[in-house]
Structures are given as structure tokens and as C-alpha cells.
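Q: Could you write out the predicted structure for this multi-component system? I'm mainly interested in how the pieces pack against one another.
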Amino acid sequence: MKIHTYENVFLWLGAITLVGCMAALAYGSFGLDIHLPTRAGEIDPQQVRSTAPFDQPGVREIAPGRYEVVMTGQIWSFTPAVVEVPRGAEVTFVVTTPDVIHGFHIEKTRINMMLIPGQITRNRHRFDTPGEYAIICHEYCGVGHHTMYGKVVVK
Amino acid sequence: VKPTPTVLDPTGFTLPEEHRTWLRWTIYIGYVALTAGIFHGLAQALSYANIDILRFFPGLRGYYQGLTAHGVANAIVFTFAFSNGFLPLMTARALGRPLAPALLKASFGLLLAGNLLVIYAVTTNQASVLYTSYAPLQAHWTYYAGLVLIVLSTWVALANMLLVLRGWRRDHRNARIPLLGYISIVSYVMWFLASLPIAVSFLGFLLPWSLGWLEKTDPLLTRTLFWFTGHAIVYAWLLPAYVSWYALVPRQAGGRLISDAYTRVVFILFLLLSIPTGFHHQYTDPGIPEAIKAVHAVLTFGVFFPSLATAFSVVAALEIGGRAAGGRGLLGWIAKLPWSEPSLATQMLAMLTFVFGGISGLINASFTMNQVIHNTTWVPGHFHLTVGSAVTLTHMGVAFWLIPYLTGRGLWSRGMALSSAWIYTIGVLIFARGMISAGLEGMPRRTFRVAATYTNPAWDFGGALTGIGGTLMFFGIAMFFIVIAMTVFAGVRGAQPRDVPVSETLTAPALAGWERYLDRLGIWVVATIVLCAIAYGPFLAMYLPARLVSPGFRLF
């Protein structure tokens, strides 16, 4: 029947489109080196303040042009509240939480990750454009959730 | 065309008055929840437009208390109350056999008791944890217990359907299960399997922790168990709508369903692929290897396929109807469809909005690209185009014949019924356009924007559209509620439809060959469990035992 021919053509075109989308995503990961947060270590959430590297949060240059930003997100602030990094530097964010789940989204970037008690969250980004970027907690974390934000200043 | 005898002939099936009552009251619980839920929906939409109306809500102690109520009432109670009534009725009608009244009562009782517990916990502000219930935010035990009872009510509804199937099989050796019954049962079998992980999370971790029997809990594991259930729950909301689109809508449009076998294959694909996809909600989580997230990305793309097949099948069935009514040309048949019939028109609007819901969902599922939109208002923009429109509008459309059918009263005001659907549809499209565009600019979801200490001018336009669209949605649902209430109290007695509008199929079920294996549900259940083990086994093997690291926090 004609209608079933149409149906088969439609489904094949759909399947090819889906495979094409997946190929594009694979290229993003393997070709462009874009990655999701993955396993990056565990921590006792009740000992965050006394466990390295979170006992000394802040910005450190780990190699020429490469920086590590160690932060904590807790109700209802980020520590440090403002971090400064130079333009063009590759910055790795290493973040955790001592209390509940928080979000960590740096606007206009693809640093968008969750902070989960017991886990260390890590991802990296290069800031090519100077300016101020808000870090927004985008996961509900209690009555003060909408007051929880920080800032990245790129100079 | 060889319609099966049970399709067109409702003799052998009469719905006893007692069954009618329990089914009706089960569904009413959902309407009451929906109507309560939309008040805070309005407050949320207006908050994104920088307007605060919360202070006019007596008894509400905060935005997130209302947001919890909105999520639980609209996404869980409204949807499952409908399914608990609709799917058993469809099974009974399709198989021409009565349901067990004791189980109808038990299902209703569990749903009601669960609701009362949740209402107590939420209204006393002891459970403002949002419907995702992420630990270590800790709610009062009645919240978790209430949700468990609501899930139990769905299991009892499924048990009722399976008993009907068992009885039918005894009397019909070697016959194919009638399609409407088959897809109704597969929908709830999928949900039953999908609900097991959240049962483990609630009964094994969160409930004993909220009672103080466990001092600490595991935030990552309970969150993972939530999403193990949590993506499939989306399909548990959607599949009853698909049941209507496949098996009822063609009849309402004067068309026919094009393929019996394809329809069964589609539902089997949903059974197989709905559950092992949960990590695509956790792409941005720490502690989960990227490779496992990639596997779930591929499986999520796989579950898009049966929805593509649905799009073809349902539109083809409508086209048959439109052409039978005299439609000519490539698109002329669309205008010939009975758009003045509220039930059908509402469901066609549901299908239209779902095109955008499906596309935006595929973008969410797109692995690293998810980092652009995760937890921004893009996400609620997306799911108000799925559960908030495809599902909601279909439930509304079905109600326009189902409530008359169950109450014995004709639909009150077809005009108002039609208007409610159009206003809601226009509203949700504006609303989602606002949320999606502001989400791309990073506007966070689940956030009391009007009180936030940060802002961004790029969010203003999208936020304003969210407010305008959300207001229209509120009025659309309010009108729907009036139509239903007036039908129940003032509809014309005896003007109701006498039967469920069951569709014929162009190709009847095959009595020999591979298609018969589609009816062997046990095989497919085992295959689903194997797929889930492949998708979740490696993570659980690597991760377990649970890390009980977090005490409870009550920050509301």
C-alpha cells in the first residue's frame, strides 16, 4: 500500500537525521574537545573546609596560561564570591558543596554543572572576551536560593 | 478493512454504575489538583515578568512552597489520576470485560490518602523540596509517604488491567489482544517497571531518613534513582495521550488508524527505551563517567524514533478523515477536519504543540550541547510543550467526551470548551517562546526572579512573554474547569456519548507470523529489564555501596 511506502521513507529520513545529529555531537567531543563533567573525586561534605584544596579556595596559576579556580558553593553564596582570571587563559573550575545540591552556571559559557554533596565537580573553559560573568546557582537550595550568585571577572 | 468485532460492537461491555462512580472520582482528584496547581503557575509566570502576586496568596509562606505544590499537583496528581481512570476503562472496553470493583476502590483510596498526606506536608510548609525531592533537602515523612501511596495507586490500577487481560486470554486462546487494550496495558507496564527505582529511593533511603531511622543519606545515588524513574515518568504521562491519539482520535476525525502492527511496535519501543535513558538529566552532574552519559544520549535519541513514527501515523489517520470529508489537494484536508468538535480540536492542538516539545527535547538530550541550557528556563519552556500541552490538552480533549460518558450528562457549552483549548494553546506557545529564549540567555529555572539579587536585561523580553503566556494558560485552564464543573452539575441528562470512540485500523492484526510475538508481553518485560541492566549496571557496580554522607537540611 502506498501509505506504507511513505511511512518507510519518512522513518528512514528521521533515522538518518538522528544519526547525523549524533555524529555532530561525537565531533564536538572528539574533534572540538568539548566535554561534560565526569568523575573528579569524592569528599566528605562535612569536612570540606578542612580538606585540600577547598581549605584554600581561590585562583592559582598551575602552568603558564593555565589557571585553576577552587571554589565552594554553600547556602547562599560562592566562596570566593568574585574570581579574577586573565583573558585567553584556560581555566579549570574545581568546585564542591558542604551542604545541599547547588547549580554552577557561568553565563555566556558552557560551564554549567551541578554541585552534589560528596562529589567534586570539575570542568574547564577559556575566556576570550574580557568582562564580568555572573555565576548563577540554578538549582533550588532553600529559601535564599535566588540570592546566590558569584562573579568571574576577565581582564 | 476487517475491524475486530470488539471494536465497533460495544455489546458484551456495559460499564456498571459503581465502576462509573469510582473512575469518575479518581479523575476528579486530578482536576482538583490541576486547578489548585495553576494558581501558583500564574504566580511563577508573573514572577519571571518581574511582577509579584504572591503576597495576595493567603497561607502561602513562599515561592518554593508554591512551586512544590505546582509540580506535584500538575505533573504527578493530575496526570496519574487521569491515567488511573482512563487506562483501566480503555482496557475494559477493548477487551469487553468488567474491572474488579475492589481494586477500583483500592486505587481510588490510595490516591486520595496519598494526596491528603502530601497536602498536609506541603501546606504546612514542611516539604518545600520541589517535586524532584533532591536530598539532602529533607521533607516531612508524610510527603514521601504520600508520594509512595500515589505510586501504589497506579500499581493497583495496573493490577486491575492485568486481571482483565488474564480473564480475556482464558476465553480467547490464540486470539490477538485488541489494540486499544494492548497499548493501554503496555503503557502502564512500562510505568510499573519505571517506578521501581524511585520506590527503592523513597522506601530505602528518603522515608527512613526523614523519620530519623537513618542519620544520613546519599545525595548522588538518590538523585540517580530519581532520574532512573524520572525520564520514564515523562513517557508515563505521554503514553495515555498516545493511546487516545492512536486508538480514539482517528475515529473522532472520521479516519482510520493505518497500521495495527506499527502501533504495537511503537509501544514496545517505548516500553524498551523509556527507562534506560535517565542520565541525560544528569549530563552536568559530577561522579558519573562521561562514557555512561554518552550511552544514555544514544538511547535517548533512540526513544525519539517511536515518537517520529507516531507523528506519521497520527497525521496519516487525520488525513484519511479529512479526505473522506471532501478535502482536496496537498493540505486541503486539514480544513475539512471537524475543528468545531471540542474533543478532537483540542487534541489536534495538543499534537501541534508537541512538534515543538519534541524538537526542544531532542536538543536537551544532545549531550554536550545540554550545557548551554541545563537548568535554565529553556527546560520548563520545553516541558510545558510536552506535559504542559501535549499531555494536558489531550487530557482536556478526552475529558470533553469522557466526563459526559461517565456522568451521563452532555458537555456543557461546546463554545467555552473550544475557547479554553485555544486560549490555553496560544498561551502556552507564547509562554514557551519566552522561557526558551530567556533560557538561552541563561535565565535560571526554579528561581524567584522578582526577588532575585541579580538580573540581566537580556531576560526582560522573554520574561514578559512568559508572564503574558502564563496568564492566558491560567484562564484557559480556569475555563476548562468551569466547563467540567458545569457538565457534572448542569449538563443535559442523556446527551452523553454511549460508547468509547474506538477506531478501526486499515490493516487488521495478523494471526500468524512475527507479529504474534508482540503480544507476548513477558518477553518484552525481560528485554526491558536487560536493557536497564546494561544502561545502569556499570554505574551501580562502580558506585555501590551507597555513600551515606549527608544529614538532612530543612531550609524552608
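A: Regarding packing and overall arrangement: The beta strands of chain A are 58-63, 66-74, 77-79, 82-85, 90-96, 102-106, 112-115, 121-126, 131-136, 149-154.
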